[in-house]
Amino acid sequence: MRRGLPFLAPLLVACSGAAPPEVDAMSGRIPIRIGWQTTWATQGQLAVAMMKTTLLREHGFEPTFTGFSYGGPLNEGALAGSVDVLFTADQPAIALGSKGRNWGIVGRLMANRVGTFVPPASPIQTASDLEGRTVVVPFGAAAHRATMGAIERAGLDPRTQVTVANLGLQEIVALVGAGADPETHRWGDTDAAAAWDPAFASLEHDGAVRAIDTTTITSVVVMDDRFVAAHPGADLRFMQAMHTAYDVVRGDPERAALWFKEESALPFDIGVLERAASVEPNIHAGSAAEIRVHLNPDELKTMEAAAAFMLESGLLREAVDLSAILRPQATVPVSASVALEQVQVKKLP
Amino acid sequence: MSADGQVRGDWAVVAATALVVLAAWEGVARALQVPALPGPSAVLWMAGWLARDGTLFTDVAASLGRVFTGFTAAALLGVSLGALGALGGRWTAGLRALVSTIRPIPPIAWIPLSILWFGLGDPSAWFIVFVGAFSPIFVQTCWSLQRCPSTYLELARSVGAGPWLTFRRVRLPAAAPGVVAGLRTGLGLAWTSVIAAELVGAQSGLGYRIQMHRVVVETDGVMVGMACIGLCGLAMDAVARRVERRLVDWAP
Questions:
Q1: What secondary structure letter does DSSP report for A330?
Q2: Which residues of B touch A171 (CB under 8 A)?
Q3: In the predicted model, is pLDDT for residue A5 greater than 60?
Q4: A19 contact B CB<8A
Q5: Is the pLDDT of residue A2 over 50?
Q6: Which band of pLDDT confidence, cut at 50, 70 and 90, is reported for residue A49?
Q7: In B118-131, which positions are buried (b, 16+ CB within 10 angstroms) versus exposed (e)?
Q8: Interface pTM (ipTM) of the complex?
Q9: Closest to B198 measured CA to CA, from B83, B67, B45, B19
Q10: Is A316 on the interface with B (CB under 8 A)?
């Protein structure tokens, strides 16, 4: 038994969730572990703005960043105690909040696009033309909900009148990348597909697809309650830092896009990121005062619809009370607490 | 101790080990109380829940059906082409080289092509299972037939046996244990492949169910899927071993 304990120790630490990091005695800053998604636009520019500048230090944090491929592994990282704060879409945030009782939404991250699209020469013009057709979507993702919603708004029943099939995002990109049949204007036996930015924007930019529906999804900042309990006010300060991050990106969107492209090593054009960011009002704000990082009533309604969809589609077995996942900070307006002039681009070591 | 007594003893050890592992797992899960590590009782509860609404059986049946179809095709073609590769000499060197080139490509890499070629339904998954199971069956059949001891072949020739009789009565029996081992390896890889295929592009099956549980962080559901894969694999291997004992009961 004594020999077995050392082998059990890492498992126990990993599963219990590591304790929140303590304040660094030398700098007085709070170490914070940020989980971000390396293949997700706009959020990517915000994360790299935090990474490449001193803005988090100016807000009293000493950050470390961990990149995840998408929301699923990021949620697993959260449950394993590897991150204190994470950037994620509405559905993964609801899933995490319903499982890990100590995780809550503390603010608005961004608006991002999900699109339903067809081959450019397809006879399908709108969602109502999807009757009797096959659409592939990554089940469980916000794009799944967006496509089902588009079909319903077109007056069709997505369960009986359209074949909605499951396919991972990478496989959708590969399927579209292989090109449509010049005679049938289909990808194999698929008529339409759905994806989110930057994959969607990239396919659009390359002329590989034509969008028939575009929906905007609200994404959020989720934080570990234990981290906030250990560092009171950290949620507000982090959202103030997010406000400043928007100001940094807004000031030079191309620089932020280049930073993100470099960090993610994704082979897309900078124009793709501009297209993806086009739905985020903060990027186009006329002044810092117009930047909003709290959730408004419309966004809360969208999140409620997301929770309802997850229950209806069988992703969740029990209804989720959104108010139990929302922390007070999430709906409180936040303004900048640090002058933009104080924020410096970090020098290369 | 008699053979029956030995078997009963082995089962008792297996059962005792399983009980100890399950008890320790339950203890750790109850002590930690975290969603990342549900205990066996929680996993069992979830299995019951999935069984009651029928999805567990639907998924097991879907995965089993895909494994059976893909593996059967791989077994028929793998053994036939493996025999051709072994006996065709230099004329089939190209076939052997082709299989050697395809062999290192993981089945999951074929998924985008399989969807384009066979669509989103079962044929795509059958193909992935086929790709996963075919290579070991081909290679093992080819290798086993090529390595028939020369003394056996010389003896057959010395008693006047023709090529067909030599193949049927000497080469094939000598190669049979190797061929059956290849089939068992192929069966194991068929399971791995079907789960890979279902994780990204299926509408049912254990891999699909694991992915759906993963999306909503239901670790207990993920573990139910994993346990089902383990149990199905174990059951199929037990059947394969029984068949092996019947077919090559003389092998060591």
A1: G
A2: 111-112, 115, 200-201
A3: no
A4: no
A5: no
A6: very high
A7: bebebbbbbbbbbb
A8: 0.70
A9: B67
A10: yes
| pLDDT given for residue A13 in this prediction | 47
CA distance A46 to A63: 14
Distance CA B208, CA B225 (A): 9
| Chain A residues within 8 A of B116 when measuring between CB atoms | 175, 178, 187-188
| Mean pLDDT of chain B, nearest integer | 88
Structure tokens at A95: 């899933």
Q: What is the mean pLDDT of residues B34-54?
A: 90
Helix B111-118 and helix A169-177, axial crossing angle in degrees, nearest 10: 60
Residues contacting residue A256 through CB under 8 Å, at least 6 positions apart: A45, A46, A48, A49, A248, A249
Give tens-digit pLDDT for A255-304: 999 999 888 887 778 888 888 888 999 999 999 999 999 999 999 999 99
Q: Can you list the positions of beta strands (E) in chain B?
A: none
A198-to-A38, A39, A51 alpha-carbon distances in Å: 11, 7, 20
Q: Return the SS3 of B45.
A: helix
Checking if the pLDDT of A12 tops 80, the result is: no
Partner residue opposite A17 with nearest CB, options B34, B112, B120: B34
Q: How far apart are CA A112 and CA A5, in angstroms?
A: 46
**A189 with A134: CB under 8 angstroms?**
yes
Element (H, E) at A87: strand A85-89
Q: In whole angstroms, give the CA distance from residue B218 to residue A315.
A: 10
